[in-house]
Amino acid sequence: MSQSNVWTHKGTFILAAVGSAVGLGNLWRFPYMIGENGGGAFILVYALTVLFVGIPILMAETLIGRSGRKSPILAMTELTKSHNTSPAWQVIGWMGALAALLILSFYSVIAGWSVHFGLVEFSGRLSGADAASIGAVFSGLLDNPLLLMLYHTIFMLASAVIVGLGIHKGLEKGLRILMPLLFVMLLMILAYGVVFGEIGQAASYLFSFKLSELSLQGWLAAMGQAFFSLSLGLGAIMAYGAYMPSRESISRSAITIAIADTGVAIIAGLAIFSLVFAAGQETAAGPGLMFVTLPIAFADIPFGSLFGGLFFILVFVAALSSSISLIEPVAAYLVERFSLSRMQAVGAMAFVAWLLGILTVLSFNLWAESSVFHALFGKSAFDSIDFLASNILLPLGGVLIALFAGWALTREEVQRELGTNPTWYSLWQISVRYVAPVAVLYIFIRGIGLVSGDIWPLIIALGFMLSFVGGRSLWLKNS
């Protein structure tokens, strides 16, 4: 990789990785999960999982990216050859690329909703509206495939233009504008919640340490959120790591990214629930929280239309920073492998994702009740694509990344790239060889519904066996 393909500004990798991690899940999923699963107890499990699973895999993925200095697919191709490992490990790059394509296809549709609600909020139509009226606005959006297609197209084009402009003029410049803008708007919404909302009630909801309310399912949710929130297994961190200057510390960057990602989610939770409680609304999960409950709250609070519109711009920016990280790994591969121009590569990736997004659009209206997906999988097209990407491809990719980095890469090159002392290296190696694969394997098996929680010790035992026997003896030749 030429020097022109390395980030020119210090800290851009952190901005890029945080941008990839901070998205819709931080705004509508994580805050709700905290409140419903023991508050501070959930945060503790989440933090421990980030520390012992998330950060080590984040470091491993960055390490592979910077070692390969190519797109994830080609980087894995070269690393398997240079480290004398089975070519089968190249599947890591391909799984990440497929997961990114699938997630981008439905992510763009859902993120497009923020355009609609931003326009509606700024217009003042929702000022003083009741729950039924706002629910009708959301239902009317979902029932209109042409309108969904319009917003899906707008969002996809915005994402593609940023990535298509290149590493420096597009990605780097875009991230250096988008991320500070996101943080400023988030703090504005928080300040608004402090003045007009119930910030004390929101803090109590999020931080009260209620261990009795943290079930085994809650533990699993905390572990899963910690893994998925950092955008691990997608190839995005690997792609961004390929542009990371050699002098930057991977360890410090990984810790900073994890803290920033968690901080954004918690601040968002305080801001959102202070408004929800001020309006006397019940907490809700998923799209209902963001596109029904929150507009109801804004409708009854001073300057609600203005700050409601600003909030949905925040949602759009957060989603945009994540979507460009989904495009980059595949686009980089197309440029390197087929000598396409960057705009051609991005256009091809975005167009395929846009086409796949039509399946998600139709899942909310024309195919809401029945489709070939319902017949084959018992789920809608949207749910089927989400399940394949989030419950299968991402966790499997995370396990393989940890095992490859822990067993195939030599001690010398890892210490050189990580710039760590022997003690920190040993702790990292234990985590990526054993702790992280076992934890993510447990998330994967429970996530696809193969077993109940009663046999988790057996799953952990099998995970350790897989990590040691598989990593040491069967697939890899270097330790």
Folded structure, characterized:
By secondary structure, the protein is an all-alpha fold. Helices cover 78% and strands 0% of the residues. The chain starts with 11 loop residues before the first helix and ends in a 5-residue tail after the last helix.
Overall mean confidence score, pLDDT: 85
**What form results from the Cα inertia axes?**
globular
**Highest-level CATH class:** Mainly Alpha
Quaternary status: single chain
Helix count, per DSSP?
A: 20
Distance separating the two termini: 27 Å
Sheet/helix structural class? mainly alpha
CATH architecture: Up-down Bundle
Low-confidence runs: none
Report the count of strand segments. 0
Binned, the helix content reads over 70%
Largest sheet: none
Rg over C-alpha atoms, rounded to the nearest angstrom: 22 Å
Strand content: under 5%
Structurally, the number of domains stands at 1
CATH topology: Amino acid/polyamine transporter I
What's the SSE pattern?
A: HHHHHHHHHHHHHHHHHHHH
